[in-house]
Design goal:
There is one protein chain. With about 270 residues, the protein is an alpha+beta fold. The protein has helices at about 1-5, 10-25, 95-100, 115-125, 125-155, 160-195, 210-235, 240-255; strands at about 40, 55-60, 65-70, 75-85, 205, 255-260, 265-270. The chain is built from eight helices and seven strands. Strands 4-3-2-1-5 form a five-stranded antiparallel beta sheet, covered by helices on one side. Strands 6-7 form a two-stranded antiparallel sheet. A hairpin with a 4-residue loop joins strand 2 and strand 3. Helix 2 (about 10-25) runs antiparallel to helix 7 and helix 5 (about 125-155) packs antiparallel against helix 6 (about 160-195). InterPro entries: SUR7/Rim9-like_fungi, SUR7_domain. Pfam families: SUR7. This is SUR7/PalI family-domain-containing protein. It comes from Aspergillus pseudoviridinutans.
Amino acid sequence: MARLLIFLPTVCAFIAFILSILCLFAGTKKDILSGVDILTIYTSTLAAKKPGMHDFYSIHVMSYCEGFLDLNETGQRKNLTGCSDRTALFSFNPSEVLLKETGNTTSLADMGWPTAVSDDFHAFQITSKSMGVFYCIGVGTAGLVILARLWFLLVRGPRQTIAEVSLLLISFISLSIASIVATVIAFQFVNLVNYHGKNSGVTARYGNQFLGMTWAAVGLLLVGGIASLLFVLVDRSRPDPRPEAEAEAGHEAKEPVLYLEEDSDSVKTKVNTD
């Protein structure tokens, strides 16, 4: 059991790596976790809605997806039509998207879109772009933790190293920052959109699944980092057996050797201590 515990940091890093990868690439294509979004803006009841506009826009880390709402017996169902190209420095610009979809033939005010919502997105533009960068750093360092563990298993056995602790710490900090930014964007934008768009028929809802996945990855990295640090401290407190083995081997090599040497007068005994 104790031997299995030494791999706890690696297991935590591996699961966090998978979760953060899913968060990073969700919504980059229609068939890649398009429902795992940070938040979704609904424009189905927008006043003076123009042809070409979609009913909802789901915002992800590196892209956004759009589609229409289908009404059925069980309620509303999202019918996804497509997603934008992915980019690490992504920031959703509702004004640009809506004007492009309507052919730039009208102003946002004419279609009833609350311009305050566009101003809110513009104010958080740099913050939104930084989120993708921190996710990339967190994913990359979590992957390095896994590779480092495989390498150290080959060269020095199962003992933990300072390098692994450092990589886990960097990954934890990066994903924590990214998750905080995503959480602020999710709650803050939902409140702002619902407040500024209440008279225009524009609403928003944050994604519970995305927030659960990203914070689960942060928690796993925290557990893995603490466990790795404890293993390093325990290993350092143990005496290293290698110097004793070398001293013992040297002692055995210097055991006195007795041999006889015969000369003309008598038999003499010599001790070889070399």
